[in-house]
Design a protein that fits this description.
The chain has 324 residues and is an alpha/beta fold. The chain folds into 2 domains: 196 residues, NAD(P)-binding Rossmann-like Domain (Rossmann fold, 3-Layer(aba) Sandwich), CATH 3.40.50.720; 114 residues, UDP-galactose 4-epimerase, domain 1, CATH 3.90.25.10. It is 43% helix and 15% strand. Strands 3-2-1-4-5-7 form a 6-stranded parallel β-sheet, sandwiched between helices. A 3-stranded parallel β-sheet has the order 6-8-12. α1 links the parallel β1 and β2. α3 packs parallel to α5 and α7 packs parallel to α9. The longest helix has 21 residues. The chain is globular.
Length: 324
């Protein structure tokens, strides 16, 4: 069945999720109907050549509004953000981008009576007081990072716009995202991406968390599917809005290394925890996403074994071609 035509703006379109989500949206809705927007980083060839691209600063509302008016935007996927590790190094910047940027997006969407807004959240909303196993949908949110603070405040702000103004805002609490296409962008779960790249390049990796560190993870194809499935769900079926738990798999850093060694036997992983270990220790080990499964049919496709096969095949091919 053909999808209804939308005019979509993707902020943070040069980032890890944004670059791939933009291409997936263009494939579904048409290249000219999906505007990619970044701050300073130049887009890659695929992003640049498949549809319109604009530079905006989400902290300056007028730059967002100008693009919205020019392209007659009715839907926004707001992915521009400062992530956890960078946010600890630059907390004021994280607050400015993550909170003031989100407020500007919501206000532009409200004033222009948009159809829908997507704003991802994160497992960073949880903290040491949160149950770490099978973390519930409804639980204590007491993060220890600036990134987590902005994500809790962002969830509350988005849900406020739903109740107060009737704006259709939706969001997911993403776990760590692993991609074969885009390098990581300053998050605490970056080790789970870097390890694959270094296994292909050098057969060796030094991991910045302990071997027994367990975190929830998701492969990029499931990440994109979750966003688009939620955005296409019937609003009447949703009891939650901007704060859905979503899960796919949980594994330790050691289990990840062992899975890679099944395919690359001489791969060696060492463990030298840094400041990101404390962040990882404050996050859940597994997630209860039954609300997402019941309300809009969420179902992941990849586990650790399937993801590893796909990651190594894709990265190995690019490495052989001299593109990794």
């Amino acid at each position: 069945m053909a999808k209804e035509t939308k005019k979509i703006l993707v902020t943070g379109a040069v980032g890890q999720i944004g670059s791939e989500l933009t291409l997936a949206l263009r494939e579904r809705y048409g290249g000219d109907n999906v505007v990619a927007a970044g701050h300073r980083t130049q887009p890659g060839e695929a992003l640049r050549d498949s549809g319109p691209f604009e530079f905006i600063d989400v902290r300056r509302r007028e730059t967002v509004e100008e693009v919205v008016k020019r392209y007659n935007i009715d839907t926004i996927y707001h992915l521009a953000a400062i992530l956890s590790a960078v946010g600890e190094e630059k907390p004021l910047l994280a607050w400015d981008v993550n909170m003031n940027g989100l407020y500007n997006i919501l206000e532009v969407a409200r004033q222009h009576e948009m159809v829908r807004v997507f704003c991802p959240s994160s497992i960073a909303v949880f903290g040491p007081q949160t149950p770490r196993h099978n973390t519930p949908q409804e639980t204590i949110l007491c993060p220890t990072t600036m990134y987590g603070v902005t994500k809790v405040a962002g969830e509350l702000l988005c849900n406020y716009y739903v109740r107060r103004f009737g704006l259709d805002v939706r969001g997911l609490r993403y776990p760590g995202i692993i991609s074969a296409e885009t390098p990581p962008g300053g998050g605490t779960t970056d080790y789970a991406v870097e390890i694959y790249y270094e296994a292909i390049r050098h057969r060796r990796y030094t991991c910045f968390v302990r071997q027994d560190t367990v975190l929830p993870m998701m492969y990029m194809p499931d990440c994109l599917k979750a966003a688009m499935d939620l955005m296409e769900a019937d609003f009447a079926q949703l009891r939650h809005h901007a704060d859905y738990n979503v899960a796919a798999m949980s594994f330790s850093a050691g289990e990840l290394a062992a899975e890679i060694q099944k395919h690359i036997p001489d791969f060696v992983c060492e463990y030298r925890p840094d400041f990101r270990q404390a962040i990882a220790d404050s996050w859940p080990r597994s997630i209860d996403d039954s609300a997402a499964r019941q309300e809009w049919g969420w179902q992941p496709a990849y586990d650790l074994a399937a993801m590893t096969v796909d990651m190594l095949e894709k990265l190995g091919r690019r490495h052989a071609e001299g593109r990794l």
